[in-house]
Amino acid sequence: MSVFHNILVAVDGSPASLHALKESFGLAGGTLAAIFVAPASGPEPGLGARPAAYWLDVQTKALAAAAELARAAGVPLKTIAAQGEAHEGIVAAAEEEVSDLIVVGLKGRDLPPAALMGSTTARVIGFSPRNVLIVPESAGIGFKRLLLPTDGSRYSHQATEEALRICRVSGGELVVLSVLDAPPGFVQEAPEVAKDWLDTLQELTARVQRRAESQGIRCQTAVLSGSAYRIIVEQARKVGASLIVMGSHGRTGIKRLLMGSVTERVVGYAPCPVLVVKRKK
């Protein structure tokens, strides 16, 4: 059984986007599509002052490269050429294709996290009601071991449901992590308050573990204190996570993503793909 049904991959001809596309081969049980949204007119941020004809040529070449990769792999691929704002075109196409997943590639690691993610990716995550999978150029997509950071919010609840579903389908293991995101010295300065919070997080992770094990999913938990994004990234490396599954703050998430949120930083520094799960209404 496939983990996902219809998948839309955003491509721009870059090695990162084509890597994400190749990693998506075999994941879709239904339709796999690749989209390139060319600027309709005038320059776009980060793209330079190029005429529309230039971007249409880039679009044609990028989609041809995507089609050739799929042909060589024997994978059916639908290519979509659109014009306008990149994130708007991707979000609209995902709705039209009834995609349950949008996949985007993440470029190299020599930039700060906000630049790593890119404004288009941040806006897709912020405005699309579909789940978004961000794939680093140096990592593959796998489901052997999922890391699930959770804080008990309604946003992380949806991520928990998706992580459990993926584990059931793929046979993967689950690592549930909760972080007391406190400033340095907090645990020492307010030990009773910290203990109450840590006890709450222990029970939270234990509840998820009980649910997972009742479904035949191997599961372990961890509760730690410190900088949330740093601990999530460190734990992903420590446990050898194939995938990090995180919740988002719905369609208003764009504001948080552009202001240094935990999700943005995890995406920027994670050693593996990150699945951002959107809350269903």
Describe the structure using short key phrases.
single chain, 281 residues, alpha/beta, Rossmann fold, ten-stranded mixed β-sheet, elongated
Topology:
Layout: E1 7-10, H1 15-24, E2 32-38, H2 52-73, E3 78-83, H3 86-96, E4 101-106, H4 113-117, H5 119-127, E5 131-136, E6 145-149, H6 154-170, E7 173-180, H7 186-189, H8 191-214, E8 219-225, H9 228-239, E9 243-247, H10 253-257, H11 262-269, E10 274-277
Describe the structure.
By secondary structure, this protein is an alpha/beta fold. The chain folds into 2 domains: 7-106, 3-Layer(aba) Sandwich (Rossmann fold); 145-245 and 253-273, 3-Layer(aba) Sandwich (Rossmann fold). It is built from 11 helices and 10 strands. It has helices at residues 15-24, 52-73, 86-96, 113-117, 119-127, 154-170, 186-189, 191-214, 228-239, 253-257, 262-269; strands at 7-10, 32-38, 78-83, 101-106, 131-136, 145-149, 173-180, 219-225, 243-247, 274-277. A 10-stranded mixed beta sheet has the order 3-2-1-4-5-10-9-6-7-8, with helices on both faces. The radius of gyration is 19 Å and the shape is elongated. This is Universal stress protein. Belongs to the universal stress protein A family. It holds the Pfam family Usp.
The proportion of strand residues reads 15-25%
Largest sheet: 10 strands, mixed
Quaternary state of this entry equals single chain
Rg result: 19 Å
InterPro entries: Rossmann-like_a/b/a_fold, Universal_stress_UspA, UspA
Family: Belongs to the universal stress protein A family.
Protein name: Universal stress protein
Domain UspA: 4-136, 143-278
